[in-house]
DNA sequence: TTTGTATTTAGATATTTGTCTAAATATATA
DNA sequence: TATATATTTAGACAAATATCTAAATACAAA
């Protein structure tokens, strides 16, 4: 969870996730959406990948990035433990949250 | 959301939330659970309060802290938008998520 | 009022973070 | 092979962060 929260603690990185929600993008396409240098975006992608919030796949000379919903679901379970919503908590139990 | 993710990006602060999940605690009681100075814990409580993840109430000479599930639910909605779980997404719609 | 307890504020410092430019690596194409 | 494109790595630096000690504030009780 540490790397996940670290990755999410930056507006640009959260915006990258929103972009990838729409569909896969290459590193260059992602960089073109922001007013930061390519190395800076590359660094952000690295942190998101360390958190396993995204995965990368080499496609020829490009590298394509996409969301990894597995970790999103773990985060969801973590948040649910604090929710006041009883039915969410029940679902949480179904999802097998065990604390950590 | 910025202050929320900032507040969550620290193990000690997440542990404080877990502690408050069990019930309200005074600043001193919270500090006693950690191997950090009271000023350090006070600072962490301040950041959690800025994010509105917790609320404080003065009770005589003590200050009692408790969870604020309202912001937890907002966070939940934010995470849900990335979830692959379709029924969760439907629920998300019911909760009125509008993006941000 | 004086003393003690609870908590925060102030100020200092080492570490981490986000950003940049320059250079390196990898692949495609002429 | 030589050149161009895509991306990352390396190194530097300013800003933000987590921690500490010392001091200040607020309240309670003797």
TrEMBL record, chains A, B:
<dbReference type="GO" id="GO:0003677">
    <property type="term" value="F:DNA binding"/>
</dbReference>
<keyword id="KW-0804">Transcription</keyword>
<dbReference type="InterPro" id="IPR051081">
    <property type="entry name" value="HTH_MetalResp_TranReg"/>
</dbReference>
<feature type="domain" description="HTH arsR-type">
    <location>
        <begin position="1"/>
        <end position="87"/>
    </location>
</feature>
<dbReference type="InterPro" id="IPR036390">
    <property type="entry name" value="WH_DNA-bd_sf"/>
</dbReference>
<keyword id="KW-0238">DNA-binding</keyword>
<protein>
    <submittedName>
        <fullName>ArsR family transcriptional regulator</fullName>
    </submittedName>
</protein>
<dbReference type="InterPro" id="IPR036388">
    <property type="entry name" value="WH-like_DNA-bd_sf"/>
</dbReference>
<dbReference type="InterPro" id="IPR001845">
    <property type="entry name" value="HTH_ArsR_DNA-bd_dom"/>
</dbReference>
<keyword id="KW-0805">Transcription regulation</keyword>
<dbReference type="GO" id="GO:0003700">
    <property type="term" value="F:DNA-binding transcription factor activity"/>
</dbReference>
<dbReference type="Pfam" id="PF01022">
    <property type="entry name" value="HTH_5"/>
</dbReference>
<dbReference type="InterPro" id="IPR047796">
    <property type="entry name" value="SdpR-like_repress"/>
</dbReference>
<dbReference type="InterPro" id="IPR011991">
    <property type="entry name" value="ArsR-like_HTH"/>
</dbReference>
